[in-house]
Amino acid sequence: MNAPISDNTKAILLLAAPLLAGGGQRNAARILTTSEYNQLARLLQERNAQPADLLSSSAPALLADLRLRFDTRRLDELLARGLLLSQAVETWSSRAIRVASRADPDYPGRFKVRLGMDSPPILYGCGDWSLLDTGGLAVVGSRHVDEDLIEFARKTASTCAAAGITVISGGAKGIDRAAMQGSLLAGGRAIGIVADGLGQAVVARDSRDLIRERRLTLISPFDPAAGFNVGNAMQRNKLIYGLADAALVVNSDHEKGGTWSGAVEQIERFRACPVFVRSGESVPIGNKKLIEAGARPWPNPTTANDLISLLRDAPSTVSTISSQEQEELLPGLRVNEEPLPGSSGSMPSAARNAAVTKPALELLSAVRAILVRELVKPLTQKEIAELLGVPEGQASKWLKRLVEQGALTKTKRPVRYAARPKQTGAG
Predict the structure, then answer these.
(1) What are the backbone angles phi and psi of residue 134, rounded to the nearest 5°?
(2) Is residue 113 very low, low, confident or very high in pLDDT (cuts 50, 70, 90)?
(3) According to the CATH classification, is domain 129-313 in 3.40.140.10?
(4) Which part of the chain is CATH 1.10.10.10?
(5) Of 2, 182, 361, 403, whose Cβ has the fewest other Cβ atoms within 10 Å?
């Protein structure tokens, strides 16, 4: 069952998605790029408006106000694609593909905090959505490699499974696929961020049961019917790193290919997580050059405890975005500037924002994933505190935030909390 698509997400789909399943190929060239959508988002923000307002009775006045700074004739054409959208949504729903935009509370917070305005406006996916904000190890590498590297990726992923660490990769032939398979075959979890063919991948025989078991989640920022495109494959690299606690580059060419460009982009620009590279005498020159550029040699942990310690102790490289940029993600999940739960007194705004954006947001995301999974039946605040093993006051602050985000519902007389029920239908 899929959650209904919000009005904000409907508007963003009309503006920025090709809607290929609805027959939108001829219109694909006219959709807004991420940069253009971000420009529109800022303009709406300035007017205290949101994307859904472009579908409301106030749309004519809003479009007239935007006319001097945006091509509103183009917006009119895109917003008129309602039939294409309904046909596309019907196709996605038949394959249990859900859609979330940056306007939705369940859009991965890690993307917003780590990638800022480079976060994709739309995500498509199938599987346990709550897994997206729980971290893991990204494992990436080339498509065409020797069997010994395939075995290295599988063995590393198997250790991840034993440690309860999710493997995050791109699902492409070679290292990516071997790592995901290694985790899943060992009973672990995997997230695949695919660059093409999501619509086929989610119904493939080797994926269906794993998705049902909530051990495999597949997502993509590209239309589920999109075919392979080198540019798309390059663009999704930052998303693989963006969900991870750390990344391992098994092998890389030098100054060419998606593995190289994705790793360099992380080391020099996004710094979403620490980047490790397989090292040693027999590694390719690309691996050695990545270490020279700032990546860390992979220490080859052989046990689950060693791997857990490695990820726990790895120095953070995360460069978080400003509160202003978070606000521009419209209408998005802005990290509130408030003291951390359980702290006292006040601290400077910049320090407060950094503290919340880094560990506290990820902690809240992990708590959210647990409660969405566990609260099938409503529980009281005290029962939830006992479930989480924290003081009741701490649980109260988390529950308040999760209710505000729409992840949980709160009933009165007696006061209980439950996961928001998923609804069927195209929305």
Answers:
(1) -105, 0
(2) confident
(3) no
(4) 335-419
(5) 403
CA dihedral in degrees (311, 313, 317, 320; nearest 10)? 80
Q: Which run of H or E residues covers position 162?
A: helix 147-163
Residue 169 backbone phi and psi in degrees, to 5: -155, -170
Phi-psi region of 21 (alpha: psi -120 to 50; beta: other; left: phi over 0): alpha
Give the residue with greater pLDDT, 215 vs 117: 215
Residue range 217-238: average pLDDT?
94
Burial class of residue 366 (count of CB atoms within 10 Å of its CB; 0-12, 13-18, 19+): middle
**Tokens read off for 257:** 């290919």
b vs e for 10-24, b when ≥16 Cβ sit within 10 Å of the residue's Cβ?
bbbbbbbbbbbbbeb
Give the length of the chain: 427
Give the CATH number of domain 335-419; options: 1.10.10.10, 3.40.50.1000, 3.55.50.30, 3.40.50.2000: 1.10.10.10
- Give residue-wise pLDDT tens across range 175-187: 999 999 999 999 9
Q: Where in the chain is the domain with CATH 3.40.50.450?
A: 129-313
Give 163-207 pLDDT, tens digit per residue: 999 999 999 999 999 999 999 999 999 999 999 999 999 999 989
